[in-house]
Description:
Layout (H helix, E strand, L loop, with lengths): L1 E8 L4 E9 L11 E8 L6 E6 H20 L6 E5 L3 H13 L4 E5 L3 H10 L5 E2 L3 H5 L4 E4 L18 E4 L12 H5 L2 E4 L2 H7 L1 H6 L3 E4 H5 L11 E4 L4 H18 L1
Amino acid sequence: FLGVMPAYSAADDALTTKLVTFYEHKKDSSVPSHQATVLLFDPRNGSLKAVLDGSVITAKRTAAVSAIATKLLMPAFAEVLCILGAGVQAYSHYDIFTELFTFKEVRIWNRTKEKAVKFANSVNGPVQVCSSAQEAATGADVIITVTMATTPILFGDWVKPGAHINAVGASRPDWRELDDELMKNSILFVDSREAALTESGDVILSGAEIFAELGEVVKGMKPALPEKTTVFKSLGMAVEDTVAAKFVYDSWSAGN
């Protein structure tokens, strides 16, 4: 797939387009499944100001949004973090989650165990490599799914009541990471209702009702409900790339 994600933010005085290619690798590849470039334009005249590494921006802004959702929605005393998947997004989520939150235990599972072991050996803190997704998820307070799964890999009867799940993978209308039981028995938050109802197989195929957009919670329009089992379905929004790209560009400009 080739995706084109244009956005304009008046508040940030920024105009961008992200070009992202997505290739489903049948076998493990040294090339990431998602590769991206962000073009930053001058909103006053349309001239190109910068070309930025969209892969880094995508990884970091996606993890940042998951962190915002987690700060609002996770249970009060969250001690165990579970990451399902060991690709680029697993690393970016691990970095920001261990920086912002204090977990006593971090677990990881990946379809290919070698990648999970490599992940555990390359990050700064201790990570427990689990032999199954069920082992990793059972008893976890916060679960992050960042996989290439097309059918569910996380099931409702594994999930601790009151846990919070950030569902980042399965970005196609016929792909799943979470089963129907989990989707229907959780309070569902999304980044965009419109996107979730057209792009997310977890939302479309389960028929789960969307409770709120994350922005509505941030702005105080809807409650967070951290005492409930919550799912944040992340698909990504172009404006996140715009804000991130402008932040990088401004920081670079100031350095010069």
